[in-house]
Design goal:
Ribosomal Protein L25, Chain P; single chain; Glu/Gln-tRNA-synth_Ib_cat-dom; nucleotide-binding; seven-stranded mixed sheet; 591 residues; alpha/beta; binds adenosine-5'-triphosphate; Glutamyl-tRNA Synthetase, domain 3; binds magnesium ion; Glutamine--tRNA ligase; 26% helix; Glu/Gln-tRNA-synth; 29 strands; Rossmann fold; 4 domains
């Protein structure tokens, strides 16, 4: 399959499948400890991956890459991918985000239900196990309660230039530690007064191995476990355990977690030794996160745009959130194509925004129905129309909805509209004095109204300020598109238009990039300053009747203008058409 470009993650999986690294795993139908897993049967999934969002915001284009990688690889290698809410941080998380994340994953075309299993999990369901595992680490001498202040811990951890200094609490006995840890859990100590730390190596060149904190005291209500806990596991401790309990084989994450991998391996090794987890453990592999020019992919900064009303909500079509991209007119296929095309690498780089736009154009080119819309309308009057055809005559015209129908597929019904004495044309399609090379309307020039007749321009009426109010022309009978006389008169150009009689007013939202700077938040810059003041311009356009009949979310190519989507929130079929510019026909940024 040509779309499956080889990458190092595929190579890792293929080599594990070849060597049978995970061939003897058992699966008991749900996550669980070593005993639970031993009671299972051979795992029907060849590999298990997971997408583990923290439910603290809406997913963005970077997450789409991660979703496509994790769900895509599981699909390609007869595995399964778990959707797991990494909800170990109660202060920032909310059930609202849980449901929007589920929607986004499904909309992208992936499913955690595979008929056999429903692989939807939440890390907070493992709090009991995590607590048990912490008690085990204490008993085995691998963890201790530290009562230094956060500041002391930080200073004593040292840095790259020097080893750390042991905490005065490091030599406590397991019995002492166990007692204090149980007091922590029972709510007998203040928030922030002590932490549980893994006991590893204060001289390790990897700072993350210098006795990382694994539990903290935090009196916070959790959206799932309520007030059951006043101590919460740290992410670096929780994540490997979540992976292991779910029998994940390949744990893919972004490069910033590379330094955490030694702790990931250390922790799982200790818990396997203790009989709490079964071997072989999952392994972590890191890939480069997505950096996209003109785009911000930090949930915190995206939230600032929303709360400061720089955009109209999380699903504003200018937002790089999945809900925003969807409303902008992006399709699941275009985002999957994008994820394939940018590939998976081990070093950070910037992807050009035009790559994303190109994927949408490529997807819509063959699928989006065509239609004519006049975005900056001026009236064209055919002065001989009544004399030639009779007053009030409307000439029925037709055009295909799709010019190139893929072989073996039924073409969609043709579009119907009518031409009359008055039609709307683009203001830029008339020039009194044509610039060099201009082929459209100027006095004496012949032009075809696409799908209709050839006309000859005779001039224009203007208002007192010299602004054109009406373009004037004569129709040349016998030249209608699709009739035998169509080629009898040569026209220099064909222009798009909409009849005054059957055109429908529509609100069209012309979106541009949200930021002017290609790297709006690089190097600590204030990204707010780089906001593009012209990222949204609303125009009142006139569209042909077939476009007014669009359903919300339908995508179109407005001929000559670009790809547009009927807004999924504000568009009302027939009565209140609202379209969003999804992407132009060509990459025109900077021109
Ligand atoms: P943010 O930094 O925007 O808050 P996050 O990394 O904290 O994002 P999580 O909810 O923890 O968000 O992310 C879930 C998964 O998505 C993680 O495995 C993470 O590595 C991945 N991910 C997040 N951002 C990107 C990105 N820009 N490119 C690729 N993967 C990403
Ligand atoms: Mg995170
Ligand atoms: Mg992050």
């Amino acid at each position: 399959d040509a779309t499956k470009i080889s990458n190092f993650l595929r190579q890792v999986i293929e080599s594990d499948l070849e060597r049978g690294t995970y061939a003897n795993r058992r699966w008991a139908g749900s996550p669980g400890d070593a005993a639970h897993q031993a009671a299972g049967t051979p795992d029907p999934a060849k590999i298990r991956t997971r997408f583990p969002p923290e439910p603290n915001g809406y997913l963005h284009i970077g997450h789409a890459k991660s979703i496509c990688i994790n769900f895509g690889l599981a699909r390609d290698y007869e595995g399964v991918c778990h959707l797991r809410f990494d909800d170990t941080n109660p202060e920032k998380e909310d059930a609202e985000y849980v449901s929007s994340i589920k929607d986004s994953v499904q909309w992208l075309g992936f499913d955690w239900n595979n008929g056999r299993e429903t692989n939807l999990y939440q890390a907070s369901d493992y709090f009991d196990f995590m607590y048990r595992a912490a008690e085990y680490l204490i008993e085995a001498g691998h963890a201790y309660v530290d009562e230094q202040t956060i500041e002391q811990i930080r200073i004593n951890r040292g840095d790259f230039s020097k080893p750390g200094v042991n905490s005065p609490f490091r030599a406590r006995t397991p019995a002492e530690n166990l007692q204090i840890f149980r007091e922590m859990r029972a709510g007998q100590h203040e928030d922030g007064s002590m932490v549980l730390r893994a006991k590893i190596d204060m001289a390790s060149p990897n700072i993350n191995m210098r006795d990382p904190a694994i539990y903290r005291i935090r009196r916070a209500t959790h959206h799932n476990t309520g007030d059951a806990w006043c101590i919460y596991p740290m992410y670096t401790y929780a994540h490997p355990i979540e992976d292991a309990l779910e029998q994940i084989t390949h744990s893919f994450c972004t490069l910033e977690f590379e330094d955490q991998r030694p702790f990931y391996d250390w922790l799982l090794q200790r818990l396997i030794e203790g009989g709490l987890l079964s071997a072989p453990p999952p392994r972590q592999y890191e890939f480069a996160r997505l950096n996209l020019t003109y785009v911000i992919t930090s949930k915190r900064k995206l939230a600032q745009l929303v709360y400061d009303h720089k955009v109209n909500g999380w699903d504003d079509p200018r937002m790089p959130t999945i809900v925003g991209l969807r409303r902008r007119g992006y399709t699941p296929a275009s985002l999957q194509l994008f994820a394939e095309r940018i590939g998976v690498t081990k070093s950070d780089s910037w992807i050009d925004y035009a790559t994303l736009e190109g994927c949408l154009r490529e997807d819509l080119e063959l699928k989006a129905h065509r239609g004519m819309a006049v975005l900056d309308p001026v009236k064209l009057v055919l002065t001989n129309w009544d004399a030639e055809f009779g007053a009030g005559h409307l000439e029925p015209c037709t055009q295909p909805a799709l010019p190139n129908v893929p072989e073996g597929t039924e073409p969609p019904p043709a579009r119907h509209f009518s031409m009359g004495k008055e039609v709307w044309i683009e203001r830029t399609d008339y020039e009194e004095v044509p610039p060099k090379g201009y082929k459209r309307l100027f006095p004496g020039n012949k032009v075809r109204l696409k799908g209709g007749y050839v006309i000859e321009c005779t001039g224009a009426n203007k208002d007192a300020d010299g602004k054109v109010t009406e373009v004037l022309a004569t129709v040349i009978p016998g030249t209608k598109s699709g009739t035998s006389g169509a080629d009898s008169v040569k026209a220099k150009a064909a222009i798009t238009w909409v009849g005054v009689a059957d055109g429908v007013q529509a609100e069209v939202r012309m979106y541009d990039r949200l930021f002017l700077d290609a790297q709006p938040d690089a190097g600590g810059k204030d990204f707010i300053e780089s906001l593009n003041p012209d990222s949204l311009k609303v125009v009142i356009a006139i569209v042909e009747p077939s476009l007014a009949q669009a359903q919300p979310d339908d995508k179109f190519q407005f001929e000559r203008h670009g790809y547009f989507v009927a807004d999924r929130v504000d568009h009302v079929q027939g009565t209140k058409p609202v379209f969003n510019l999804a992407v132009g026909l060509k990459d025109s940024w900077g021109k």
